Amino acid sequence: MRVAFGEGLIEIGGENEDLVVLTADVAKPTHVIGFGERFPHRFLNVGIAEQDMVDVAAGLALSEKVPVAVAFAPFMMRAWEQVRSTISRCSLNVKLVGTHAGLSASDEGASHQSLEDVALMRVLPNMTVVVPGDREEVKEATRAIVESRGPAYMRIGRDEDARFLEEGFRLGRAAVLRDGSDVVVFSNGYLTSEVLKAAEGAPVDAMVVHVPTVKPLDAGAVVSAARRAGAVICVEEHSVIGGLGSAVSELLSAECPVYVRRMGVGDTFGESGTYRELLEKHRLTAPHIREAMVKAAGRRGKR
């Protein structure tokens, strides 16, 4: 995903001379170093100073540039006050990208695992929140947020290389990847590939809906799928508090009350391990998702 993100920035940078990329001393691991080598006059490394990076990006936006500020997702949250008070409150055209999101910085442990970033960004007025799932979608989502107006936050993983989307990314739109009538699973990020594996071998008819834009949520698609299936599961590489599962639950509680199960990381911090070990610990692999599908299907029509 990081490679695709870097490639996408270079493509857009060749077309848009107002694009400026900023990083907090992580140009190489976030794969924006290529943009810096290609367009050195539009590349700023502010050092390990995320708050400064965000404020500089705000100034560039006020100068009619299109700044993309890049850092590891957990450390981007160091600048949340500046994001809130400067970018979101003023609705500035700044794009924030957090890499190594979720559990993907697995061996680095709790300090490097961002399990709260979607919740923190989703609560901010004017902020678009995007969680793409495969490498081509990362490229398309990068272009979409750059070409849109207003603040946006996109989170991507580290080494995932899934490919499961046939249609292109559309900002604010969910995509039905598999039809079904017994249960619907809403997911985003890399975990959508695990959901698809789970659905293929499930003894129930599972619909899979990929939701890369958490805010604004595709309310029409979510309500329609929930109404048809009658039972819902939300799967995400994020805390079960405040992320995609919360967004879907908030919507359905008002528009289509059905059984909803949220699958993600519980009310806890991360820990060290391999990526697969951590996904297994938090029951976010295909066998666990398949088990949840069967149980949820048995709750159809119940709250």
UniProtKB/TrEMBL annotation:
CDD domains tied to this protein: TPP_PYR_DXS_TK_like
**Which keywords, in A-to-Z order, does the entry hold?**
Thiamine pyrophosphate
Top-rank lineage group of the source organism: Archaea
Necessary cofactors? thiamine diphosphate
Q: Which residues form a coiled coil?
A: none
The organism encoding this protein is: Methanosuratincola subterraneus
Its GO biological process annotations read: organic acid metabolic process; sulfur compound biosynthetic process
Domain Transketolase-like pyrimidine-binding, which positions?
1-164
- Write out the similarity annotation: Belongs to the transketolase family.
Which protein, by its recorded name, is this? Answer: Transketolase, C-terminal section
> What is the residue range of the signal peptide feature?
none
